[in-house]
Design a protein that fits this description.
The chain has about 120 residues and is mainly beta. It has one helix and nine strands.
C-alpha cells in the first residue's frame, strides 16, 4: 500500500483496511475489537530510525467498504521531514480468552511518502 502526505500536514488520515481473508487467517473476529490496543510505528527508510514508535492509533468499521480499518492521524511533528518511510500497526488483543498480538500488514508494507511543501502555517 502506498500513502502520500505533504510535509507539515496532519491530513489525510492513514487508513489500512482489514479484509475478511486476513481476519479469518489470523482468527480475528468482530468481538475482539471490543478490547484491543492499536499502535502505529513509522521508520525512516534512509537511516532505519523510528520517527514514530508505538503511538496509539485507531480502529473502526468503514460502512462504505464493509471492512474494519486501522487508522492513524499524523501530528505536525510526524511529517516535519520529507522522505520515504515504512509503517505498521500493532494489534494487542486484550480479552482473556482471545489475547494475542499481530503486526499489520502481515505480507505487505505501508510505504509512506512525505512530500516537500513550500508552505508552513500556524494557527493561534
Amino acid at each position: 500500500m502506498n500513502f502520500f502526505i505533504k510535509q507539515n500536514s496532519t491530513l489525510p488520515l492513514l487508513k489500512y483496511p482489514l479484509d475478511y481473508e486476513l481476519m479469518e487467517n489470523y482468527g480475528i473476529n468482530n468481538e475482539m475489537f471490543d478490547d484491543i490496543a492499536v499502535t502505529f510505528s513509522m521508520i525512516n527508510l534512509d537511516n532505519g530510525v523510528y520517527e514514530i514508535a508505538n503511538v496509539p492509533a485507531g480502529h473502526g468499521f468503514d460502512e462504505h467498504s464493509g471492512e474494519f480499518v486501522l487508522t492513524y492521524r499524523f501530528k505536525l511533528s510526524d511529517t516535519k521531514k520529507p522522505g520515504l518511510y515504512t509503517g505498521e500497526f500493532k494489534l494487542d488483543f486484550l480479552e482473556e480468552k482471545d489475547c494475542g498480538k499481530v503486526t499489520i500488514p502481515t505480507d505487505d508494507t505501508i510505504l509512506i511518502k512525505i512530500g516537500d511543501s513550500i508552505t508552513k502555517t500556524s494557527v493561534f
